[in-house]
Amino acid sequence: MKKIMLGNEAIARGAYEAGATVASSYPGTPSTEITENIAKYDEIYSEWSPNEKVSLEVVIGAAIAGARSITAMKHVGLNVAADPLFTVSYSGVNAGLVLAVADDPGMHSSQNEQDSRHYARSAKLPMLEPSDSQECKDFIKEAFEISENFDTPIIVRSSTRISHSCSIVELGEREEVELKDYKKDFEKYVMMPAMGRKRHPIIEKRMEDLKEFANKTELNKIYWGNKKIGVISSGIAYQYAREAFGNEISYLKLGMVYPLADDLIREFANEVDTLYVVEELEPFFENYIKAMGIEVIGKEKLPIVGELNAQIIRENMLDQKLNFDSPIKDHTPIRPPVMCPGCPHRGAFHILNKLGLVVTGDIGCYTLGAIPPTEAMDTCVCMGASVSMAHGMDKARGKEFAKKTIGVLGDSTFIHSGITGLIDIVYNKGISTIMILDNSITGMTGHQDNPTTGYTIKGEETVQVDLVKLSHAIGINRVVVADPFDLEEFERVVSEEVAAEEPSVIISQRPCALLDTADYSGIVEIDRDVCDYCQQCTSLGCPAIVDKDDHIEINEALCNGCTLCFEKCDFGIMTKAGEDNA
Fold first, then answer.
1. Which of 54, 67, 203, 210 is at 20 to 30 A from 452, Cα to Cα?
2. By CB neighbour count within 10 A (0-12 exposed, 13-18 middle, 19+ buried), where does 178 fall?
3. Where do the DSSP E strands lie in 254-394?
């Protein structure tokens, strides 16, 4: 049976058909849908874990115990998982272990561009890269086979356009794979220095074997055509190259992108007059092929920054300037990123801006607090960094500066990697104030549950981490829960906590506006006869409040009746539509 599937959905299907039984991940765009779809298969135990390092460690344990296992993460998540990654490369696996890693060229939802192929080389691991949804499914199945045949974890790399594009997939039956026997093997799985030194030559031999495999596998394919031009490419870049160069020339499509197939590359290069390398981000193939002594044209023609497309390739490599007879006119209105109407973070950032605090921020919906009108965020580096950076500023500039500084991060991000920073503050006698924006969900990636929500990936009730008790348990004496929509009280709490000469935690608690528990209803109306156009309500940055230059209107299509604007109107002219306010 054939089905149109999202690339991420096809990766999940591949894990199902390959007989995987354990999956553990942390959500991160563009990889999130992989695990969400895996969770739909009852045959696979699935979970959201606190972060990518934990996810990988869970599936390492599962694989060594004998179960085919998979984890999914975005490229920056691979950084978090790098510690166990480099060591499991040495220990190897028992049953198959696959990491599905999604890069984000163009940074559609990421804080940096990163080419995960470098991780495959550095960690000495094989890496596959599919170019459509069918290959997403097929390559995952092949990856499990390679993992077991070569006793290695394996990475399957995708990019945003592969993860989030749909194409036809031929579905297959699930292979029921028996749990492999677990055998205690101290020298293989305990990576003390003495054992690690013994494993390293084995890993080097494994890479030589994998290189030999790369030259033979049908994952790498040559499509012969006109031999005046040859193109080496992979993944989505292969699709762009095919669109730009057409079907007449020759292609070497690399499905196994590490280790590279030297013999196959040399054979292909010897047959074509001019050789191009088309790849997004880093000149990974290009540098390798040039080191083989082969002349190629690559990044001197193509950008190293952002995504490619067929037009970029045509203009830069073929010098074909495209002249459109009827230029496409973009009538799409400009929509700057903005917090949702009713977002609980709006009140918090409004107060932080009003108090003029230095705010070390973090990764999540709340990163939008950095842009107008609140502009209440000074830094944003990576998940959990807000806590540690606030502490660093405290130590660098002293107590008085710390009293004007606050670290801000979400509940899921706090669990991901904020806890350790908070422990550091306590242990090293810092006085920083940390605000946990608890909106009862992982908002940015699309409402995934996490340890603070009390539900698993399958929606089953579970133990809910109590942030108040947790903060007390690690040594924070001052813990306050406050409602960010009670602006007056929230301002008092923040002012008091940042002034304290000891560490404190403020839990800004109100559910995401998109959850049913937000319990918003009705829309807001303005009494235009009384409104004197003071514009105080616009300082909230709510997209439902529209400044018409001479008066204020409420956009009824956007307003959800959160009533935060009531807090900013000194004249009491805002009411809920339909309410009897007499």
1. 67
2. exposed
3. 256-258, 274-278, 358-360
